[in-house]
Amino acid sequence: MAAAAGTLSPPLVQSRPRLLDWVMTVDHKRIGIMYIGTSTFFFIVGGIESLLIRAQLATPENTLLSPEAYNQVFTLHGVTMIFFVVMPWLFGFANFLLPLMIGARDVAYPRLNAFSYWMLPAAGAFLYYSLLGGGAPAAGWYAYAPLTEHAFAPDNGVSYYALALILSGIGTIATSINFLVTVIYHRAPGMTFNRLPVFVWMMVVTSILSLVALPTLTGDLVMLLVDRLFNGHFFDPGGGGVPIMWQHIFWVFGHPEVYIMALPAFGFISEIVPVFSRKPIFGYSFIVGSGVAIGFLSFGVWAHHMFTAGLSPLQDLVFSASSMAIAIPTGVKIFTWLATAWGGAIRFRTPMLFAFGFIAMFLIGGLSGVTLAVVPIDWQLNGSYYMVAHFHYVLFGGTAFAIFAAWYYWFPKMSGRMMDERLGKAHFWTLLIGFNLTFFPMHLLGIQGMPRRVYTYPAGLGWDNANLLATLGAVIMGISVLLFIANVLRSMRSGRPAGDNPWDAWTLEWATPSPPPPYNFAVIPTATSRRPLWDVAHPEDPDWRHEHEL
Amino acid sequence: MAIAGVFLFGILGALVYIALRFRSRDGMAEPRPIYGNLRLEAWWTAIPLALLVVVFVVMVGAVRDETSIASNALEITLVGHQWWWEFRYPDNAIAANELHVPVGRQVRLNLLSADVVHNFWVPELAGKEQMIPGQNNVWTFTAEKAGTYDGACSEFCGAQHGWMRLTVIADAPADFARWLAAQKQAPVNISSSTAPLQLYATNACGGCHTIQGVSDGKVAPDLTHVGSRTTIGAGVLTNTPENMVRWMKDPQAIKPGSLMPNFHFSDEQARQMAAFLEGLK
Description:
- The structure holds two protein chains of two kinds.
- Chain A is mostly helical.
- Chain A has one domain (24-546): Cytochrome C Oxidase, Chain A.
- Helix content of chain A is 65%, strand content 0%.
- Chain B is α+β, with helices and mostly antiparallel strands.
- Helix content of chain B is 34%, strand content 25%.
- Chain B has helices at 2-21, 38-67, 173-184, 194-202, 241-249, 251-254, 267-278; strands at 74-81, 84-89, 93-96, 98-102, 106-113, 118-122, 127-131, 137-142, 147-153, 165-171, 210-211, 215-216, 231-232, 237-238.
- In chain B, the strands form four sheets. A five-stranded mixed β-sheet of chain B has the order 3-2-1-5-8. In chain B, strands 4-10-9-6-7 form a five-stranded mixed β-sheet. Chain B has a two-stranded antiparallel sheet with strand order 11-12.
- In chain B, α4 (194-202) crosses α7 (267-278) and α5 (241-249) crosses α7.
- The interface between A and B is large, with 89 and 78 residues.
């Protein structure tokens, strides 16, 4: 915090013990870093779970894990990765970046922000306490009723699952309100909506999605708890309940949720690709507009998760059309990133490698998603390993690669030190190879007829080699993550000092020291255009002259 | 799929080309800024849109074909149970885990569930559809070629989801008719072995299982013709006399969590029961 020694006197919090300083902080940067740290911890936990899954499935009729243990492990893996890794990782970066990018001193409600963060470890404790309290949930992350009803899941696991997600949902809802109010009321002079960094725009859309989706999930979970704890009958057909209602309500949450996990990643890529191509984003209004379009459409596609649930053919077709429609703005984004890089002077530092990796992997996941939007194909491949491949290409090859890109890109801003490039490149290539070895064969397994969520499979169906290959890939990914963690730990201690703007980037977070002082900016900056720091460096051709060009 | 493939390789190719062609070189100046191009944006919005409209129109036809029901369709009711399949044919013929269908005639399935959501999936034959308690989903398929087709539950349904497999056997119409007639008969050798029948009675096997003429339990698979099936426990074992002995000795060791309890039969009792069950053709 040497940078704090400027014209302002250091804030009072400096006098407390360091740990307490972190625990009691309301500084958005520290809260963001705590989100990221907590998510990284859960990423390791969820990663170990995935290695257990792959160890069990390495060979047919393996008996390493009992069926109960396997079912708990894959449920914990899914719930952990979605609610305790991907979402808080993204929200953590947003927490750190959003006020800096719009030239604000903090979020609108710093105490609420701290409250939101502390919901996360509390929710994680609920989820993992289930292991001590009678067994973890074992019904999958989308927990289709009535398997979750007391009659079929008498242990407390599902109740802990519901309570954990309600708690983490409260945090997400509060953070979304915080982000929205911050962007609406705390932008620096000159920072019009037309000049917001694309990442900030994506967080605005994400926050709106969260504000609708998370309360829907909470409602579903409360009904489930009423069924389980107070003998309700919402989803129990024996008492007049309707199991398919769970599916509808869950996916009304669940599909916007997919975009809650994707739009911030699109934002990262839209910040990183221009800087490393040395060109402005191609078609700002299209990349922002396509994000907004995705947000709207994401509320109208939920039943594509339910093409096999016995809806009418007409309903299937309507949701198929909307799901195909959402591919169009998503395609616009991919074309836009390519056009941004086209004709650039690309510097393949680690963030850019991960950004290109993201585009390639997300492309595969997006296209397999379009195939699944075709109803008859979905009737074949829904619930199979093809599905597992598809969403891992979206969420790991897509979002997680984008998170690593963001990590290498903004780590210097957060810590004041650069990450190691050699380790970073080793991390990227091993992850790319391991990821594709693990998940590409799963497309074929799904087409060959392997259902997902089976704790074992018979020999002799031709599934053995692909499964063994997938396990091998998972081991390589495990090694890759160790390289990453080593890089983070080493760079935190002895990385090269970064300076204010190591990448020669253009948005406002780079206009202040690394790490930024508690008050962010000694003087609130003025946004002269979408790329204020470009304008400073290039007074002969400032960006604001081009604002009318898309 | 082909269109998706073209996009995949086209865009990946462009990505690699960009990565190679536009690398920064020493002493390179900042490239010329390009802020966008309305015409390009319009093209790459319009072309995918047009392609998707074509895919959609083709799909509407496919969905109509696949959901039409023939007037002579054979109606079979499938009930999903944790973790096995019950098949009810017309005229009260009941089978389990092995679905026999006639070649060339459409089959209309009523999909039901006795407990949680299951999903009927026979990849090479029938696609898939959920089986939801309290709801009657209808699904059709036609086997064009005689043969044996593997299938499985593809909606997670609890501890033994992994061993909720099924086999579809498509027979020539005459063979199918013979099979169906046989299913309605009581097993031929039912009276010949009294010791296992006493075991069957004293262990209340009949409370869950049906053997025509002996017991009428409805909770567990019908055993009237269990000896003629190819697997035991919805796919977990091949149906051989040795495997049936193992299953009688300790089903929980083979399919943990299954609702079939361990009756702690002695070796002799297990052999007797296995021989009896294998005789139920």
